[in-house]
Amino acid sequence: MIAGNITTVVLKILKWLGITMASILFLMFIIPILFPGTISQQVKIFANKHLAGELDYKKTHLTFFRHFPSLTVSVDDFLLKGSKPFEQDTLLAAKEVAVGINLKNLIFDQEIKIDEIYVNDATANVFVNSKGQANYNVYVSKPSEKPKDTTEAGASIKLDLIKLKNWNIKYNDHTANVLVNAKGLNYTGKGGLSEDIFDLETDLDIDKVDFALNRIWYAQQKTLHADLITRINTNALTFVLRKNELRINELPLKFTGFVSILKDGYNLNINAASEKTTIKDMLSVLPPQYLSWVKDTKIEGNSDLFFSLKGRFSEPKNQKPDLKASLKVGNGFVSNSNAPVPMNNLNMDLNIDLPSLDTNKLLLDLRNLSFDLGKNNKFRAVVRTQGMDEMKINANIKGGIDLTTLDSALGLKDIELKGLMNTDIQSNGIFSLDKKLFPKTKGYLNLKNGWLKTKYYPNAIQNINILANIYNTDGTFKSLGVKLDPFKFDFEGNPVFVNADLQNFEDLLYKVRAKGVLNIGRIYQVFKKEGFDVSGLIMADLSLNGRQSYATTGQYSRLDNRGNLILKNIKATTEYLPKSFFIKEGNFEFENEKMWFRKFFATYGKSDFALNGYLLNTINYFIERKGTLHGRFHLKSNYILIDEFMALKEGDNKDKSLAVEYAKEENPKSSGVVIVPKNLDVSLEANAKKVEFKGLGLNNLVGLASVNKGEVYLKNTTFDIIGSRMGIDARYQNESPITANYDVALKVDNFDVQRAYKEIDMVREMATAAKDVKGIVSLDYKLKGDFDANMKPIYPSLEGGGNVNLRDVEVKNLKMLSAVGNDIGANAFNNPDMKGVDIKTNIKNNLIHVAPFTFKVSVLRPSISGTSSFNGLLDFRIRVGLPPGGWIGFPVVVTGTHEKPKIKIFSKTGQGILEALYNTKSNKVIREEKRDEKKSRAQQRKDKRAQKKKAENAEKQVIKDVKEK
């Protein structure tokens, strides 16, 4: 009986459990069917309302099973583009993005409450350009002053969970010069994320993370784990680090403090520490190429690391936080199985203080760096420096090391060292280039029978012997002396030696002897670096003897500089050019103050150069802090392609300046402009058979060119262009990798109008009426303006003017004149006689002002004056002079455009053109020209006179600038 009752109860329980489970499963299937339209529509409403970036995805799903037990709306192949001005760039791409829906609100309130977010297999590109514009500002919040719209259906967010799986993130901030690459990122964040104040629990793992500052990699391919609890106050935008445990590879770090986001920056108080760890854990954060060495080497000892960042960061107020760091290493022991003795008693105590992140206040305090390599191999260093431009130095470095013992003790695999190195340097005082101060110093470095071999090249650099002495007795440049006697080595059977005796750096007294043959292609392979390629041969036999002031005061006879330097097949790069120069042969002869280029043949891409001439005072250039190279050359070339020199073009040069790299990233489709070095003062007598620029060929170029302080000048230069000989004076200067300015004065006779219209872009864009003109003209014109990021003229920047002489032309079916002829019944306007007519024009703010000129149309004598724009707007006055002699006439006004002119006979009332506005600092067009509002005739005449006067003044200024330069 009792057993039967128990069975009945169990069966009932199982029955209800089955019904419950079936109901739950039924609901899990039916709810997505009942609500799909509501959910999909409201999520789209929310996205379109709150996202500024373009959103796209393929499929949508409403299911319990993707992220069980949550009901989620999922989208596949999610794509979100950035905010302005990055609308075409991908901010986030993910295989799946899902949002969890609060089931209670959905069923009972018909409301969509999003409380969970899942993003899987995603790639994020976060970018801040050099102007501070960020691509991630895609969320558009409602203005707080507006009342809530309670009548409109939509979704809301009250997050409790964020889960990111398998993310790859690239963070590139050009304003802070920070680059972070994170691969294999998995993140879980829990907490009431929609509350005003909440605790965010974070679990973060990254398989590989790279970090660079100023394009210097401080961490590469590091694993990272973080277990964090952060209190977030959304009202004050403050993040308080409550529990923050971080592990980079094997190195544990603990963080405390807070971060507050202000209107103009941040307020920071961050403290980090890695205490009572081992040296091996510390070394685990080294670059990946050294980790195998760490793994295979016995390393013992303790280490402590401390770091703090405290203060405000605000660009507008020029405020930056204080940084402090310290590293302590104690009782270190490093040994390899092949070492006769280990590195023992390794100790380090380093402290860094950087107030306001100002390098001129940087304090580096190396209180101790010491280690032993056996009885007679001990090294000790104590160094303290403060400041940068004016640096206080107190250093004591002493030690004798057998490099063979050091090499084997460390178990280095990629490099083999030999030789005995001794050093003893004591230095105390101030170092300042501006004030010519140098700390009191006495010391030497002596390396005997050195040997260096790497895995990259089979042969070693042998017999390396260096004896360098440095001394300073009174703390000034005047008593500073450096003696290098000898510095010599053998490589590939070729001995190289340098002897140098340098005294009195206020007025350098130098005596240098150098001789040897160096195969830099092969020696470079000893120190091989991925992505770079160096080759060639250097042969030197030089004797340099003199004093710096002998050259600067013209006492050249007291100099004794002589010898030869020969370069062959040398590949060279500069940070401003995309390609490498290839010096096929360079034969240089030193003769007192001059370095003669006796033979110099080089190529750059498709361009070739032969130079003959000299550089002046090259020794001063290397001595002076900001020296300038002076010289005079004859240059010959068969072909020069200007396009190859544009800074953002593709090329083999991997070592470009940060400015060029950032400009390329921010303007990927632009070529940039040509960057001119600022440390050159060189004149050239140029003779080039062909110079090409953007498809325009200049043949037989002859003239004077000079480069001075970042500007290029052309004087009395002539060349053949489309069958005519053109004379030109010009100046060019780049302002950045993507902006430049220029001014030019040009003269040309016998210019074929139709050929110019067909072959020269600028003619087509500036003189659209030229398509209806045939024949020969002469041109005398002066212009100045700016180039854009593709080195094309920015037309609203143009200023200047000049004269065009219609020497022998036919003007047929010019729409403006044909329209006038049709309205007054004179078909002869279709073929006017303009031979010999001079047309004087001035240009400013995208408007061309035409001075009055008269021509013949049968027995009529029309005169034209007025304004047109580069975009085709017209505002002309025509006086049609009647026979005899045109003394009596009637007025005609032409407005409209070149393609659709509007004619008003017996009228003097036109419609003005409001000039364009151009910002010369930002190289941006603020406003394009447009039709002016209708005004009285008197006001129109007044405005037009003012516009024309501005243009005439601009032309006069251009003429003055060209003459002065």
UniProtKB/TrEMBL annotation:
Could you tell me where the Basic residues compositional bias lies?
Answer: 937-948
GO CC entries: plasma membrane
Bilayer-spanning residue ranges: 16-35
Q: Which GO terms describe its biological process?
A: regulation of protein targeting to membrane
Which residue ranges does the record annotate as region Disordered? 925-965
Keywords from UniProt, A to Z, are:
Membrane, Transmembrane, Transmembrane helix
The domain of life for this entry's organism is Bacteria
Q: List, as start-end ranges, the regions of compositional bias called Basic and acidic residues.
A: 925-936, 949-965
**What protein am I looking at?**
AsmA protein
Q: Origin organism of this chain?
A: Epilithonimonas hungarica
